[in-house]
Automatic annotation (TrEMBL):
This is GTP-binding ERG. GO terms for molecular function: GTP binding; ribosomal small subunit binding; rRNA binding. It comes from the Eukaryota. One of its GO terms (biological process) is ribosomal small subunit assembly. Keywords: GTP-binding, Nucleotide-binding, RNA-binding. Gene3D superfamilies: 3.30.300.20, P-loop containing nucleotide triphosphate hydrolases. InterPro entries: G_ERA_dom, GTP-bd, GTPase_Era-like, KH_dom-like_a/b, KH_dom_type_2, KH_sf_prok-type, P-loop_NTPase, Small_GTP-bd. Belongs to the TRAFAC class TrmE-Era-EngA-EngB-Septin-like GTPase superfamily. Era GTPase family. The keyword GTP-binding applies. Residues 331-408 form the KH type-2 domain.
Length: 408
């Protein structure tokens, strides 16, 4: 039986409307689900729904059951071919919906506008940038398998009707005992300075990794988060409310997904959370519910960006971010961190295309040779990948020309 803390923490948003007509609480429903044998969850829920419908006339529909199972990540067919896990990415599917919704909010007067500023925090490689990019619907921050890819807070937003949600993607935050150098310390403090001024915090945790090998940095982060965010804040400052987001549930083996609730229970004992979401930012699982939750929390306030804007970054900054991401994905070890990028030009062409010229400055001859690659293959692959992504984002042909130089 889960402890009372988990009852308070676990939102199980799909549980609430589904189980209420059945006469049981979310905590009772989640505990009951744990007793059902593997692979029989959906059948058991359907049977319970049918029994309750017969007894009370309430409707425990298949769609509702599927929604609840999806929220727990225990659906029997969620990994089957043709589902979002084998097809379209979150940025592609949810992204178009987010951008299209902005078009309906163009003429909202300032007096009717609502705004939520939400800070996305977590240890390195929790999937923060992937989540922000997916919720916003376009590339806001570079994403790679390397730690500390995000060097400074990035801002992304989505707008639906009268509500705008501004997401602040922050560098990975850790306790001071994990600082690697003064620059790392400045990045972490800068992340907390941004997050502490938001109206809501999203604490992102890699659930798959945490179930396999608990990360002591997460324990310290959650326990000390209020004190860390308080640094530099005015007297009387109170920490923003927080939501726990367990990410990468698609990477949790189906037989181990029951452990997600005890994990939420353990993390919820370290600091108060108002809600919990199970998501796969990479594949879009759980994101519609999270997006709607954020929109619902927007309070009266003028928007930060125009309705159609997904980020406050200029096209030049976007180009640099994309090229930087491709370098991180292509190069190994510490080399990408040592490279400096300089925008030479970003100009529209007569044929409606855009030509972007960027200098990649390597620290020495050896590094330059690696970036260029045999016969220029590496730098060409980076440029091609940047071409493709920028063309998709800007919706016009883009040609990226990279010049690799050695620092002097």
């Amino acid at each position: 039986m889960l402890r009372q803390r988990c009852t308070q923490l676990v939102s199980l948003r799909a549980f609430r409307p589904l189980l209420a007509p059945w006469g049981c609480s979310a905590s009772e429903g989640s505990a009951w689900l744990h007793t059902v044998p593997d692979g029989q969850e959906e059948a058991a829920l359907q049977a319970a729904a049918a029994a309750q419908a017969a007894a009370t006339g309430s409707d425990g529909s298949s769609a509702d059951v599927a929604a609840m199972l999806a929220s727990l990540g225990v659906s029997g067919d969620d990994d089957a071919p043709g589902t979002p896990f084998g097809s379209e990415t979150a940025t592609g599917a949810a992204g178009r919906a987010a951008l299209a919704a902005g078009a309906t909010a163009e003429a909202v007067p300032a007096s009717q506008q609502r705004l939520l500023q939400a800070g996305v925090v977590g240890v390195p490689n929790a999937g923060k940038s992937t989540l922000v990019n997916a919720l916003v619907g376009t590339k806001v921050s570079a994403v790679s398998h390397k730690t500390n890819t995000t060097e400074a807070p990035r801002l992304g937003a989505f707008t639906v009707d009268t509500a705008q949600v501004v997401l602040h993607d922050t560098p990975g935050v850790v306790g001071k005992e994990h600082y690697k150098n003064p620059n790392h310390q400045r990045r972490v403090r800068g992340a907390w300075a941004v997050a502490g001024n938001c109206g809501l915090l999203l604490f992102l945790v890699d659930a798959a990794r945490e179930l396999q090998r608990p990360d002591p940095r997460i324990t310290r982060l959650l326990a000390d988060s209020a004190a860390a965010a308080r640094v530099g804040m005015p007297e009387g400052w109170q920490p923003p409310p927080a939501v726990l987001v367990l990410n990468k549930i698609d990477a949790v083996p189906r037989g181990e997904r029951r452990a997600l609730l005890p994990l939420a229970d353990r993390l919820g004992g370290l600091r108060p959370f108002e809600d919990l979401f199970f998501v796969s930012a990479k594949h879009g699982k759980g994101l519609p519910e999270l997006r709607q939750y954020l929109l619902d929390r927007a309070a009266p306030g003028e928007w930060t960006l125009e309705a159609r804007q997904a980020t406050d970054r200029s096209v030049e900054e976007q180009a640099l971010e994309i090229v930087r991401e491709k370098l991180f994905l292509r190069l190994h070890q510490e080399l990408p961190y040592a490279l400096r990028l300089r925008l030479v030009s970003c100009l529209p062409q007569p044929d409606n295309s855009v030509r972007v010229e960027i200098e990649v400055v390597a620290p020495n001859t050896s590094a330059k040779r690696i970036v260029v690659g045999a016969g220029g293959a590496t730098v060409a692959a980076v440029a091609d990948a940047a071409d493709a992504e920028l063309s998709a984002i800007w919706r016009r042909p883009v040609h990226v020309a990279l010049q690799v130089k050695e620092a002097r």
